[in-house]
Each structure stands twice: as structure tokens, then as C-alpha cells.
Design a protein that fits this description.
about 120 residues, alpha+beta
Length: about 120
């Protein structure tokens, strides 16, 4: 009963199994991640002087949000969104928020792809 299975997954029509395309997607994913990281670090540097009463930083890095897929001209690219936490906000009105200019919260495809559609 412990026979090996010969099931072969079928290639999906929308998947491209081209080494060059895979390399381009990996490069795009890495470049986008680095750009968003730089944007987060710049934002944190601007608010680094804000401290809580006990001396801790008020605005801190808080990991990543769930990864999402962005449709690009070279195909889908998966990206994880960086999260920032404001530990000192009493309410929503005084909370400091980070919004990426490179990867807006609502973006699911690139602007150039939007223009094509």
C-alpha cells in the first residue's frame, strides 16, 4: 500500500515556466521589498524623536501584513506589506499612520497595467 504516486501536476495556462520570466519576477519582488523597506526606514527616522512617558519609542516597526499579489506587466508578483505601530495614540484621530507611496494599501495592480485596461 506504500506505492509511490506518479501523479504529475498539470501546468496552468496562466503560469509561465520560463527561467527568464521567473528571474525577472524574483528581481521585481526583491527590488520592491527593498524599496518599501527603505521607505519604512525613512518614515521611522522622521518620527524617531517621539517617545512615550517611559522613554520607549512611540512609533515602532510591527512586522509585516499578509502577503498580497500585485499584477504587473511581467506577471503577478507577491509582496508583503510592512506594518508600523503607534504605541502612544489614545484614539484614532491622533494615531500616526504609515502609508507607502510605492505600494498603496489598495493597490492590486500597477498603474501602467491599469492604463492598459
Amino acid at each position: 500500500m506504500n506505492e509511490t504516486s506518479n501523479i504529475v501536476p498539470l501546468r496552468q495556462p496562466d503560469e509561465i515556466d520560463d527561467p527568464l520570466t521567473n528571474l525577472l519576477r524574483a528581481g521585481a519582488r526583491q527590488l520592491l521589498a527593498q524599496a518599501v523597506e527603505a521607505e519604512v526606514e525613512t518614515f521611522l527616522a522622521t518620527v524617531k524623536d517621539l517617545k512615550l512617558a517611559d522613554g520607549r519609542a512611540r512609533v515602532v516597526r510591527h512586522g509585516y501584513g499578509p502577503a498580497r499579489t500585485i499584477a504587473t506587466g511581467i506577471g503577478p508578483v507577491e509582496v508583503a506589506r510592512a506594518k508600523i505601530r503607534d504605541r502612544g495614540a489614545a484614539g484614532d484621530s491622533e494615531r500616526i499612520r504609515f502609508s507607502s507611496a510605492i505600494l498603496p494599501l489598495w493597490a492590486r495592480r500597477t498603474r501602467s497595467l491599469d492604463a492598459l485596461l
